Queue: 2 jobs
Job 1
Amino acid sequence: MQTQTSIPAKSEPLLYRVPELARVLAISRAAVWNLISSGKIRAVRIRGSVRIARDEAERIAREGIGR
């Protein structure tokens, strides 16, 4: 019996780079950097590259950014 494994079509990335998150949220890259600096967006640094988790992007889209 052969088991087929389906490969999902193009799925959302696990981690976003700053320009990608800016595009997804329809805000500027500078705004994303400011939100990271102020602690309103949680980000991680991987080998010098700043990344934002998909869960964090979904939280922002759902709840927004408080002022």
Job 2
Amino acid sequence: MSNDEKNKKRDFLLRDKEEQQAFLEQTWCDKCQEADLGMHTPLEYELDGTIYIEGTCSKCGEQVFTELTDDEL
């Protein structure tokens, strides 16, 4: 299976505005070791059946990842 088949891009902007805002604000940054610093430049994708939102920490600029659980879908 190719990488493209395992990693499927999704459109973050198709989510309603409130949901987008929640995902952009409720983050965890491993480098800062802090929650809810926010992220920008979100990229949503599905990898091996799991949906992720990846972006840039608003405080330090490192990549942050959110893995969506069934409760969040």
